Amino acid sequence: MNSILPTTTSHSFGSSPNRSFYYNDSNGTYRRNKNFLRRLFRIPQMDFEYAIWQMGYLLIAPRRVYQNIYYHKQTKNRWSRDDPAFMALLAAMLSLSGIIWGFTYDYSFMNTIKTSVFMVLFDFLFIGCILSTLTWFITNKFLIQNINTYAVAQRVEWAYAFDIHCNSFIPVYLILYVIQLFFLPLILKENWISLFIGNFMYCVAFMWYAVGTYIGFNGKGTFLVHTELFLYPIALFIALFVASLFGFNIPQYILNYYFNKI
To answer: pTM of the predicted model, to two decimals?
Structure first.
């Protein structure tokens, strides 16, 4: 039965793991990544309409997005995205948010640009690469179930793990980079209600990210088992949220780190 998750395959039983096999596989991956990066500089070739459709459904029906990924595999024989439009659009949205946040805090032009770049390179890409590598390692190391001993071994692609991060980052962006901005006058006040609302926003954003990660690695026909492991951090987020209600204002701490103006 075909898996609904992206895979890379190693040699089958009885075949020799010669150098040619590994060279061809790595060469194919290099070629796909090279084409993906090349398309970053060819904006007319990007399908932004489809990227916007995905972003919308990731908020209301994320499983439908992953169902389309399965169809994508059937037509293009590729699980991870071959169109950088989603990532480029998300980076552009983060850059715009950085500009708005800089304007809100009365930053200079250069400091505003630095804030935008930091949000894209650190918040989205750097943290994303760390989380993607972590989930990629966990799935391949502990969650793979090979039912048939003589079947071709299957592994989750790192590129797909990063796609899951991009997908799960959408609600985080909506809550912490957009909605939080409108609640800024409230959450910066020194009272318990402001503390509760601000901390609750961060708790919901992180829990939504965990649920999105779980949905991405879970699906009909998956060769992974116990993917509910990715839901376990939700208990930690709730515990930290409850503990923070005793006086630790998360938004104030993080915004102070960003803007040093609280």
So the answer is: 0.83
* Reported confidence tier of residue 25, pLDDT bands at 50, 70, 90: very low
Measured distance CA(109)–CA(98) in Å, rounded: 11
**Alpha helix (H) ranges present in the chain?**
19-39, 48-60, 62-76, 85-104, 109-118, 127-138, 158-172, 180-182, 184-187, 192-217, 233-244, 250-259
Q: Under a CB-based contact definition with an 8 Å cutoff, are residues 58 and 212 in contact?
A: yes
CA distance 211 to 168: 8
Q: Is 9 helix (H, G, I), strand (E, B) or coil?
A: strand
Using alpha carbons only, give the angle 125, 131, 73 rounded to the nearest 5 degrees. Answer: 85
120 vs 118: CA distance, rounded Å: 5
pLDDT above 60 (res 2) = no
Lowest mean pLDDT of 78-87, 101-110, 142-151, name the range.
142-151
The two three-digit tokens of residue 64, written as one number: 């439908």
What is the distance between the alpha carbons of residues 111 and 59, in angstroms, rounded to a whole number? 31
Helices (H) and strands (E) in the chain, counts: 12, 2
User: 155 has which bridge partners?
Assistant: 8
Asked if residue 158 lies in contact with residue 136, where contact means CB atoms within 8 angstroms, the answer is yes
Q: How far apart are CA 36 and CA 81, in angstroms?
A: 8
Q: Is 144 in a helix, a strand, or coil?
A: strand
pLDDT tens, residue by residue, 145-176: 765 554 556 788 898 899 999 999 999 999 99
Which amino acid makes up residue 196? F
- 3-state secondary structure at position 154: strand
Distance separating alpha carbons of residues 167 and 66, to the nearest angstrom: 10
